[in-house]
Design goal:
Length: 177
């Protein structure tokens, strides 16, 4: 009975993986264009992430974070699947947790799920507005030591939350080229 034993030369060292971690794009994807998704995918490739996870938010979650009206989750997910098919983006995955829950999901629950499901380290790609909202939560302090933030654009100088300013070494903006 073969148990998968393989003969290897003496001193063989398995190759070290060139990819690391997961880039999670946490957004409503209501006003996202294909070009912005291409920039996120390009960032994941150039920074050698093993996976780009697109995490669309449920309507109730968006309502509590930003108070803006959004289209139904299934329409935004369809747009993401269409983008993934058209770009042949094998590195990208679309997270379905919010679609399964069908209700408001706190960012703590979402981050716990992502930490359990995908390889570490976790980089959270969010807008500056979402970053400010996340920094205002009491759970921000424990989470910022476990994840890193990437902002979709450089925030305006006076609009940074004090907690983001305090932890300025744990976040940065992506380069748009």
């Amino acid at each position: 009975m073969d148990r998968g034993n393989r003969a290897v030369p003496f001193g063989y060292e398995p190759p070290v993986s060139e990819t690391k971690g997961t880039l999670v794009y946490y957004d409503s994807f209501q006003h996202i264009t294909d070009a912005e998704l291409d920039i996120a995918y390009g960032t994941a490739v150039t920074r050698s992430f093993s996976k780009l996870v697109l995490y669309p938010l449920h309507e109730q979650t968006v309502k509590r974070l930003s108070k803006e009206p959004v289209s139904p989750l299934y329409k935004r997910e369809d747009m993401l699947y269409e983008w993934k098919r058209s770009r042949n983006a094998e590195l990208a995955a679309i997270e379905r947790l919010e679609g399964k829950r069908k209700k408001y999901t706190p960012i703590d629950s979402a981050l716990r799920h992502v930490m359990e499901t995908y390889p570490s380290p976790i980089f959270l790609l969010i807008t500056p507005e979402t970053a400010n909202a996340f920094a205002s939560f009491t759970s921000f302090e424990p989470w910022i030591s476990r994840i890193r933030l990437l902002l979709t654009e450089e925030p305006a100088p006076g609009s940074i939350h004090p907690n983001l300013h305090k932890h300025s070494n744990r976040w940065g903006a992506i380069e748009r080229t």
